[in-house]
Amino acid sequence: MEKIVGWLLSDKTQCPSDNDNNFSVLPIVGMGGTGKTTLAQLVYNDEKVKKYFHLKAWVCVSEDFDVMRLTKEILESITGLYPPSNSLDLLQVKLQEALSEKKFLLVLDDMWNENYERWDALSTAFAFGKPRSKILVTTRNKSVASIVRTVPNDHCLKGLSDEACFALVRRHAFNDENSSDANQKIELFGQEIVKKCKGLPLAVKTLAGLLRDKRENKQWKAILENEIWDLRENEILPSLMLSYYHLSPLLKRCFTYCALFPKDYVFGKIELVVLWMVEGIAQPKERKRLEDIGAEYFDELFMRSFFELSNRRHALAGRPSFIDTSKEVHKRSFFESSSNMRSGFMMHDLIHDLAQFVSGGIYCRREYDKPSQVLTITRHLSYVMDNYNVEATGSETMKSLRTLLTINDIGVSPRYFLPTM
After folding, report:
1. Do 170 and 186 meet the contact criterion of CB atoms below 8 Å apart?
2. Are residues 216 and 296 in the same domain?
3. Which of 203, 204, 226, 385 lies 20 to 30 angstroms, CA to CA, from 168?
4. How many domains does the chain have?
């Protein structure tokens, strides 16, 4: 963090072969789960960094490198206003105006694009900022890094040291206790945890969250000797799969439901709990209100690292259209016992892959530009909207459907959407 902050605050802008740019790009490279986004968040929120730059923007790129979408999202992050235009030329002019004579910091999180022309098209407007503007790109792919970087070397993230892994286990399994029990467990099982998780913070966190309520040595031993560690049939980390299998049946349903949402979606706690309630997943218990029971489910998943706090707030526009968010009375009375109500939450890509994997076709998501198959067993279907051209799904495949959810509505309400099906 100190190294990257030092680079951001330095006068170094570009490499000698690229003298026309006012901005410099540093890629943060590492495999999934190494903490690239977490590191970028720490840097982005550093007080010295906040004071140094006139403008800051954070955009999740993901696998869909759509120049128009990204230009819109950068503009929205800078101005706080959603740009309505669908003209790339007009959007780029507006972005140039917004960046003009401003020293900016832009984070492009989780980039996969290896096409230089697309990167060139997006980055044209960046040259209008003041000298010493900086861009951080997080990526798993060194080819992506080679396209965007203007500095001699990437910042490569390796796995955590043994000591750092032990500290993370102590934090998430024992609340940073320095008790004899914590010391004994780490002495007995620490090396095995390091070996299983290969130094990945995400894997260590989820495993430690699973061990959190286990106090017997035999319970730790059983988890670390589980046959799931030997599975190599898919790309899901065994530590994540193991954490899923140790959830209660109700929490499994809550988690799997999240497969209906796209990657990088910013969840609102109220939004998700309301959906669990209307789906009948949140079950009555004693004399507690259903809202509070649902909030407890969410908090449990958060404690086990299935959710993490987002750098962005949850936007009302991202909510499914049938939830009436205008009734402030509900917001005031909901979930007195729960925390982080106004925060946004995200799922790490690898956690999202797990949700999709365990959904088994029961939960299905259609995205405007990605092929996906709706099966006859699909019971819950979501459409991630981008325009009015909705591809209809055949009625034969919808025999078992119980849920239809539209996400990221841009004015496509169900009355326009349903007749096309």
Report:
1. yes
2. no
3. 226
4. 3
Q: What integer pLDDT is reported at residue 127 of this predicted model?
A: 92
Q: Tell me the two tokens of residue 227.
A: 């046959």
**Is residue 223 domain-shared with residue 370, that is, in the same domain?**
no
Kindly state whether residues 237 and 368 are assigned to the same domain.
no
Residues 206 and 120 in one domain: no
Quickly tell me which residue has 């969250």 as its tokens: 209
pLDDT, tens digit, for every residue of 318-351?
444 344 444 433 444 344 444 556 678 998 888 8
Q: Which residues of the chain have pLDDT under 70?
A: 12-20, 231-235, 312-342, 368-372, 386-397, 409-421
Identify the pLDDT of residue 419. 64
Q: Are 276 and 297 in contact (CB under 8 A)?
A: yes
Entry pTM: 0.74
Note whether 282 and 414 are same-domain residues: yes
The residue among 286, 288, 259, 289 whose CA lies nearest residue 272 is 259
pLDDT of 394: 58
| C-alpha span between 81 and 338 (Å, rounded) | 30
Tell me the pLDDT tens digit for each residue of 392-404: 555 666 778 888 8
Which of 156, 173, 208 is a domain's end point? 156
* Structural domain of 196: 162-246
Nearest to 234 by CA among 321, 350, 323, 319: 350
Do 408 and 290 belong together in one domain? yes
Q: Other CB atoms closer than 10 Å to residue 231's CB: what's the count?
A: 12
Sheet holding 104-111, edge to edge: 55-62, 104-111, 133-139, 23-29, 155-156
3-state class of 267 per DSSP?
strand
Structure tokens belonging to residue 148: 């965007």
Does residue 171 sit in the same domain as residue 146?
Answer: no
